[in-house]
Amino acid sequence: MAGTTVADGGLVEQAFAAAAQRVGAEPDAVPGMLDYVRATMGESKISVFRHLFGAEAKAQAANTAFEEAYGELVDGGRIAPIPGAREAVEELRAQGRTVVLTTGFARTTQDAILAALGWQDLVELTLCPADAGGRGRPYPDMVLAAFLRTGAVDGVQQIAVAGDTSYDMLSGVRSGAGIVAGVLTGAHDKRQLETHGATHVLGSVAELPGLLAGADR
């Protein structure tokens, strides 16, 4: 969601810096940690914290602090939809497609974002890592969970995955999706997206309905 359908203006990094401070990370270590956070955008946040903080208790504490900090920023009106994102989802649904929004955030944060944008009823299904076994991206679990839960298509090759990170691309490729579209409104650039398996690179998710309509012809 963040970077693909939601413009958060760097709130992930701000929330991480706040979380690191709250759990007592050394100030000199935070810039290096932020580099890792940027490189792994799209991954389940608890997985990121396990890598950075090691001990499970500290990783869980950092994850909780991150979710609280991000939630505070969301509640402060600091997020907005990517221009044309809502319209793109509505057009996809008008084309008869089933749309699922996935995230590396926890459910509480995902729900806060949806509420802040008024998107609670925008799509048929929303998924976070815990809804699909807990591993999150770059594993294909959320994509395959969407496939199984919606029953919208006959085979995985009919799935289209769109995202702004390398891990979005990897999860799409690993799921067997026929279209894996990178968008340039978020964390990673065209080279990173293509290197990790993007079949298409779009300026934004607003271009996705046109891409899929063209693929149907």
UniProtKB/TrEMBL annotation:
GO molecular function, one term: phosphoglycolate phosphatase activity
Pfam families from the UniProt entry: Hydrolase (PF00702)
One GO process term, biological-process aspect: DNA repair
Assigned GO CC terms: cytosol
InterPro entries: HAD-like_hydrolase_sf, HAD-like_sf, HAD_sf
SUPFAM superfamilies found in the cross-reference section: HAD-like
Name recorded for this polypeptide: Haloacid dehalogenase
